[in-house]
Amino acid sequence: MADTGKTTAQATSAVQTESPNYGRITQVIGSTFDAEFPEDRLPTIYNAVRVVEENKGVKIDLTGEVQQHLGGGKVRCV
């Protein structure tokens, strides 16, 4: 995988009725992170957001839960 400088996030829910919803990580602060999605595909509160990435030989597999809608297509996850 080429290093694009962007980390992608995938929103999932308990009921898989749609295709995966992909966004990107915009900010990380401690144990929380913000992710940006298309405004018409914003994950709902309590949905899982999974981050799977490999960058410079380091594998990341992180799952957060949407806690807040920030506006502008962004969500805050813990």
The Rg value, from CA coordinates, equals 12 Å
Note poorly predicted spans: none
CATH second-level architecture: Beta Barrel
Overall spatial form = globular
Question: What is the fold-level CATH name, i.e. the topology?
Answer: Thrombin, subunit H
Question: Beta fraction of the residues?
Answer: over 45%
Largest β sheet strand count, sense and barrel closure: 6 strands, antiparallel, barrel
* Count of helix runs: 0
Order of adjacent strands in the largest pleated sheet: 1-2-3-6-5-4
Domain count, please report it: 1
- Find the count of extended strands (DSSP E, 2+ residues): 6
Overall average pLDDT: 84
Report how far the terminal alpha carbons are from each other: 27 Å
The first-level CATH class name: Mainly Beta
Q: Structural class per helix/strand content?
A: mainly beta
